[in-house]
Amino acid sequence: MISLILDLGDEQVEFVPLIVGGGDVNRTYRGDTFICAAALQAGLISDNRGGCASLSLIGNFTNFLPLSAHGLTSIGFPTVFPLSSAAKSYSDILVPTFGTFLPVLFISYAFWRLAFRFTLPTFAKLPLESAIWYLATFWAGVLTNITTDKIPIDTLTSSSLKKQQGAIAALVIIVIIVAAIVINQIRIIRKTGWFPYYLGWDWISN
Fold it and tell me: Which chain regions cross the lipid bilayer (predicted)?
């Protein structure tokens, strides 16, 4: 059996999990704290039933407070540490996820009702083209935080556009692309003969 002794300031930790912090309101632990031990001390999991929890990285944190709970005692660290984390209940993630599930489900049904059920049969015998058109746009949408990260537009206000370099040029390019897509869609609708129908429906609905 290997005995590991960890020095933490003027204290030594031996034969127990290394837990530093957790005594503040947000249950903030030092970055080298044992994750499962921290979740157990925070009451998110238990030895009998197990459980599921999430860990959020915070970064720099100062003054980790000690805590004694659920049979575990953490050590205080009254100075700054470059990495910290906060253990959270998994329900904190599930609640907003299920909150957006119904709107996403409705939008998906609308897409299928208005577009996919007409376009998917066209690509039934074109697996390569369908993979390119559907998977490429799908992942571009899923990774929006990466694909649109370099666009220098934060808010569509005149003050914000003037402060950010290249924002006006990016906005002009986006408007041109959207206008081209709209014009092409109108052209296709007109070519299929549905343009008078949609134009009449628009006047009736208004």
Answer: 93-111, 131-148, 168-189
